Amino acid sequence: MKVTVDPIGCRAHGLCADLLPEAVRLDEWGYPIVKPGPVPPELVAEARRAAAACPALALRLRAR
Hints:
With 64 residues, the protein is α+β, with helices and mostly antiparallel strands. 23% of the residues lie in helices and 22% in strands. The strands form 2 sheets. The chain has a two-stranded antiparallel ribbon with strand order 1-4. It has a two-stranded antiparallel ribbon with strand order 2-3. The radius of gyration is 10 Å and the shape is globular. The chain starts with a strand and ends with a strand. The model has no long low-confidence stretch (mean pLDDT 95).
């Protein structure tokens, strides 16, 4: 699985970085920067929770 962000839909709430700091960090304006590559298997559950919690539904999980 891979984490992606819809840059148009994102509203910079920052919840994704709070819930998944291993894969997402925020830039200086509060928008997410996703770590490249697949989500490690031990973080898939957390990645799903972060995607489900995104207020703008901009954080997504995709099959590689």
